[in-house]
Amino acid sequence: MSWNSCHAFSLVSSPKTTNSFRCTPFLNRVPVSFLNAVESNGNEGGELISARADDVQSIQALFLRQCDADGLMTKQNLEAVPELADLLKEGDLLPDELSDIWNAAPKFPCDGAEEKIDVDSFTQIYRDIDDLFEDEDMEEDGTAPTSAGDESKSSAVSAEVINGDDEAAALRVRDEKELETVFKDICDTAGLLSREALMGWDEVKLLFDDNLLGRNEFDELFDQTIKSPGTSDQLDVEGFLSFNVALDDLFEFDDEDEERAAAVVEEVNQMKPVITETDLPAGVLFSQLADNDFLVGMEELKRWGELQDMIAEGDLMPIELQNIFANVQKADGAPDKVNEDGFYILHDAIFDLFENDNEDEQTEAEDLMAASLEAKSNLLNMLADLQRREGLSGLECSDADQARIQEAAVLVEASSNNLLTQKDIQPADVAGSWDLLYTSSGMFRYNQGLTGLAGSVPNAEFGGLKQELIADKYLFEVKYVERIAVKSAPENSFDASVNGDWELKKSVSLLTGAPTVIMSIEPEKVEYGPTSTRADHWKSVRSMNLLDISYLDDDLRIMRGNTSTDTIFILQRSK
């Protein structure tokens, strides 16, 4: 490894993957002689290098001044770093302490007998020395330092006692530790991770399955992540952390994307709506269709929904409409439009073509209603049978069962009972308490529920999920209550709740381009027993955050994934 390659590798650590939020007691509490050493040792150009414990670039600059031509450093080189040499000379850092820290740091594989470290190990050593001074300062203040054995306990309670920036910092530390643990489980014996192994990680596989991450996006993220020294396609733990930061950034909603979506919605809102009501009086229909000059032409007739349905269903041929319109007297000064009197004549002429018996029409309506009720009944019976065989919500059902339920749900969605085809859905239409009957969500099934607690508590299983939607003039709140059933000791079963806000959004489907109603949920807090924690870092609850409502009636709701229509949730209003 040349000096230049060592210098390039020093850029691996980024502010996103290092604990840039940690305090800097090393610089603030070390002896004045050490501070003077830091301030007086510049490079040849006279540039001052201030090696704060949270300043990765300055620490790397110190390393580059002392490393050998291969970008490595022996213990003797380390002791010669002026800042550390001053600490050893003054007795503020004991040789035994430095030896312990040196022994604990990872060594770079070398052919020779002498151990060497790279820039990452040097950074770790520098911070470990910094922690010695932090511990001493805590002891002077009467606060006992936290040992490695107490670390898990302290991190567990810290989320309940810290607020604001400190809480965010603690959460980032916790996330990094969890990711480091994950890395140990999925890396190879050399502590490296290949592209294929990363694709096999459960988190990435779930994103693939739910169509939230494409292969091209994954490859781009992997290619942009700096690889471990000496390899071209392997990640070390720092690279793995960097990859996860980039992956999280991918799901940050871009302001430009929001502006583009808002522009599309605004454009749709500005378009004059199609008149979907049927059997309107001719005068009312004319007032809604007429242009600014109170005239109606063929272009305005396109907004007459009932007329367009006649044409689409073949009951009225386009040539028939054109012939009728041509025979109606046109308005003065407008050879291709009719006034209100002319529209009355046009309206009557169109309906004179249809002399269907009212009894036949009633029979057809009754047949549609019967078909709708039958489709809904078949779906509910299928779900009841599935629950008896496989358990709640279909978490263990087979691919064949999933396919049958998908087919049954499509028939229900297309039925005449669907309120989405009859009116603009309002929050009051969906407010209330709902029970989850079934879901095909890969993330929900993997976590064995919304919170994932059923899969982590010994001998526990998913016991059902209730969604309560509250809506009034100023308040739109959602509360999930998930039952965690302990099979071996039912008396130990408990409820976990997720609280947050919700809203309905009118948008345009990314897949079909058709108007759609989205239920958007923003979870805020997860609670179970005495534990209460923020939900924005609880990944499993994201499975129900953004769903399209595809069917709604008085007691049944079907929702599908906003970007994956195969992901389906079926809920029934609580009785």
Q: Are there runs of 5+ residues with pLDDT below 50, and where?
A: 1-50, 144-164
Average pLDDT value? 80
Shape: elongated
Alpha-carbon distance between the two ends = 70 Å
Proportion of residues in helical segments: 40-55%
Biggest β-sheet: count, sense, barrel?
8 strands, antiparallel, barrel
Structural class: alpha+beta
Radius of gyration: 34 Å
Beta fraction: 15-25%
Number of strands: 13
Written account of the structure:
The structure is a single chain. With 575 residues, this protein is an alpha+beta fold. Helices cover 46% and strands 16% of the residues. The strands form 3 sheets. It has an 8-stranded antiparallel β-barrel with strand order 5-6-7-8-9-11-12-13. Strands 1-2 form a two-stranded antiparallel sheet. β12 (556-561) and β13 form a beta hairpin. α9 runs antiparallel to α10 (164-186) and α21 (358-390) packs antiparallel against α22. The N and C termini lie far apart (70 Å).
How is the topology of this model organized?
Elements: H1 3-9, H2 25-29, H3 32-40, H4 56-66, H5 75-79, H6 82-90, H7 95-104, H8 119-140, H9 151-161, H10 164-186, E1 193-194, H11 195-199, H12 202-209, H13 215-224, E2 234-235, H14 237-250, H15 255-270, H16 282-289, E3 296-297, H17 298-301, H18 305-312, H19 318-327, E4 337-338, H20 340-352, H21 358-390, H22 399-413, H23 427-430, E5 432-439, H24 442-446, E6 460-471, E7 476-486, E8 494-508, E9 515-528, E10 531-534, E11 546-552, E12 556-561, E13 568-573
Antiparallel strand pairs: 1-2, 3-4, 5-6, 5-13, 6-7, 7-8, 8-9, 9-10, 9-11, 11-12, 12-13
Helix pairs in contact: 3-6, 4-8, 9-10, 21-22
